[in-house]
Design brief:
Blueprint lengths: L1 H11 L8 H26 L6 H13 L2 H19 L11 H133 L7 H25 L2 H5 L2 H16 L2 E5 L5 E2 L2 H22 L3 E8 L3 E8 L6 H9 L5 H12 L3 E7 L2 E9 L7 E2 L8
Parallel strand pairs: 1-3
Antiparallel strand pairs: 2-7, 3-4, 4-6, 5-6
Helix pairs in contact: 2-3, 2-4, 3-4, 3-5, 4-5, 5-6, 5-11, 8-9, 9-11
């Protein structure tokens, strides 16, 4: 209850802003009239003393609430009303004597002092109100900014949560696609290796059949022609027999060469060193490309799988040298250290374009031969690298070699012509 009364009192005594001039003067006039009425109500009590007591209250109120000028106006109106109705002689504005003059001067001085004090208090209260209003406005703006910031933070957090969920779903889909792709690549790699294994087996079978069937047939044909020579024949038949014998020798040589190219028996009998030297010599003879061969005469044989992979890489590399490089010379180097077998095939050709070399090294869009070599090497835990510049290309293969409990020594075998 006390708080409500204090609030109402503060509201009544709150200064009226300078901009509301009509309200300030209206309040001053009403206060002057209220002072006259209040003096009339107190006249039976006060009588002929304290004529201006209600005027002092009015002047103080007007000075605090309405300002300097309205307080003067209210004081003048209240003074005139009280002097006219309550100061003897009543209902007259004439002065009776020196006491009335003293009372008027005292009232004037008191009113001026009250007006000055009220005006000072009013200005102080107005500055305080402005400060309070500024602080209130600032607090309101700050609260509004905090609310907006909190709302923006909540919205951003919600968007982050939604975006995170979307990214998680996209990542899950991507991981699933990657797993599927890796699985397909692994299946494709296994299929490729299986096909290459079947191809090697088929080559071995065809080579054996060519050697055992066609080769034996041609050998029998040569023996038959030799018997025909011993039989008395017409002189004009002998040139035909010579031609047939030459053709049989050529066919037999082609069969042997094809058989050896499909699967050289030297690879199984003597090892990679002898088979590689035989293949390099035959390649140089057939292609006209000079090949420098650095292969040791004797070396511990690696496992058969390593020998087969190295021979196929050698075949594919030299075939690419002949078909694509435009080289006049090449080099083949085969070495073995404690736990690694290395094959290096180089040429002095025109090199491989950078974009195509990048595809070779990333296995993207490469040919069957390159992919086959890389998969064969990868299956055995090795690695294949292709380096190329404008002056030539080098293919390097490194295969890990496990030590065999019973080492197989490379044999020196005479090469077929």
């Amino acid at each position: 209850m006390t708080g409500i009364f204090s609030a109402r009192t503060l509201t009544i005594l709150a200064p009226v802003p300078h901009q509301r001039m009509a309200k300030r003067y209206a309040i001053a006039v009403a206060a002057a009239m209220l002072a006259i009425l209040l003096r009339w109500a107190l006249d039976p009590v006060l009588g002929h003393v304290a004529f201006y007591v209600t005027l002092y209250v009015t002047v103080t109120f007007c000075a605090v609430v309405c300002g300097f000028a309205p307080a003067i106006l209210g004081g003048i109106l209240g003074f005139l009303g009280i002097f006219y109705w309550f100061v003897d002689p009543r209902h007259s504005l004439s002065l009776m004597g020196q006491p009335e003059i003293h009372a008027i001067v005292g009232c004037l001085l008191v009113c001026l002092g009250l007006i000055a004090l009220g005006e000072a208090n009013r200005r102080k209260q107005l500055r305080l109100n402005e400060t309070v209003l500024a602080l209130t406005t600032e607090a309101r703006e700050r609260k509004r900014a905090e609310d907006q910031l909190r709302q923006a933070h909540d919205e951003l957090e919600q968007r982050v949560i939604e975006r995170t969920a979307e990214l998680s779903q996209a990542l899950a889909r991507l991981e699933s696609e990657v797993r599927i792709s890796e699985k397909k690549e692994e299946q494709l790699r296994n299929l490729s290796l299986r096909l290459m294994t079947l191809q090697d087996e088929e080559r071995r079978r065809i080579a054996r059949e060519l050697h055992d069937s066609a080769g034996q047939t041609l050998a029998a044909m040569k023996m038959s022609m030799s018997l025909i020579r011993r039989i008395e024949t017409a002189p004009d038949v002998l040139p035909l027999l010579d031609d047939l014998d030459a053709l049989a020798d050529e066919a037999l040589q082609e069969v042997r060469t094809t058989s050896y190219l499909l699967h050289p028996p030297l690879l199984d009998e003597a090892g990679i060193a002898s088979a590689a030297r035989w293949f390099v010599e035959g390649f140089a003879r057939r292609s006209g490309i000079r090949v420098d061969c650095d292969i040791p005469e004797r070396m511990e044989r690696p496992p058969r799988d390593c020998e087969l992979v190295l021979f196929r890489v050698l075949q594919e590399s030299l075939t690419n040298v002949h078909r694509h490089s435009g080289a006049s010379a090449a080099s083949v180097r085969l070495t073995r250290d404690t736990d690694q077998l290395q094959l290096e095939v180089g040429d002095n050709g025109t090199g491989i374009p950078e974009e195509r070399l990048r595809r070779f090294n990333t296995s993207v869009g490469t040919g069957v031969g390159i992919t086959g070599m890389r998969e064969r090497v990868r299956e055995l835990g090795g690695h294949l690298e292709i380096h190329s510049v404008k002056t030539g290309t080098t293919v390097s293969v490194a295969l890990p070699v496990m030590k065999s409990p019973t080492p197989r020594t490379q044999a020196v075998v005479s090469l077929p012509s």
